[in-house]
Design a protein that fits this description.
Number of strands: 6
Radius of gyration: 14 Å
CATH superfamily: HybD-like
Order of helices and strands: EHEHEEHEHE
Helix content: 10-25%
Structural class: alpha/beta
CATH topology: Rossmann fold
Distance between the termini: 7 Å
Number of domains: 1
Strand content: 15-25%
Shape: globular
Number of helices: 4
Largest sheet: 6 strands, mixed
């Protein structure tokens, strides 16, 4: 498998646990993006596992895809630079801003695409609403990737959403084919 030697324009970083109901959102979007041949990494519930890979890829833009707590129904699009670090509100081990900075990615070049969660029970399937939102989000992320990282004609907003998911995922780090 070839590794990228020159910087990518944009890459999706998908997070979530497919074994925890609606937290499967990022995983579902990842599978759709990869099936379409788009640049995407899957980090499970531990985004720190792809810091080295992001450093190698040197993307100009990262689109983080994840389930959101407290967001309500519908897809949310937020610039990471506009979100306050809430280390106790996120269940990921290390704040995304810090991890992406370690990977050489500026928070200003990161867009978060997420959906509000209804259920996070271990072993439960994602809700129908989240499965439908995953298809819509995959189309949105594909358009962001195609535009080099700019969400097309969308109002970016932070409505108090927090990242969901607190169970160690067995599937770490999806590969990006060069």
């Amino acid at each position: 498998m070839a590794r990228a030697e020159r910087p990518l324009g944009a890459v999706a970083l998908c997070l979530g646990n497919p074994l925890r109901g609606d937290d499967a959102f990022g995983y579902l979007v990842y599978r759709l993006l990869r099936r379409a041949g788009l640049p995407a990494l899957y980090a499970g519930t531990a985004p720190e596992n792809v810091v080295g890979r992001l450093r190698e890829l040197k993307p100009k833009t990262v689109v983080v895809v994840d389930a959101l707590m407290g967001a309500g129904p519908g897809i949310r699009v937020v610039k990471l630079s506009q979100v306050e670090d809430l280390p106790l509100a996120t269940t990921h081990t290390v704040p995304l801003k810090l991890l992406l900075k370690a990977a050489g990615v500026s928070p200003e070049s990161v867009t978060v695409v997420g959906v509000g969660v209804e259920r996070l029970g271990l072993g439960g399937p994602p809700s129908e609403r989240v499965r439908e939102a995953a298809c819509e989000a995959a189309r949105l992320v594909a358009s962001i990737l195609a535009a080099g990282g700019s969400p097309p004609q969308l109002e970016l907003r932070d409505e108090g959403a927090r990242v969901a998911g607190d169970v160690e995922d067995f599937a770490l780090g999806g590969e990006l084919e060069g």
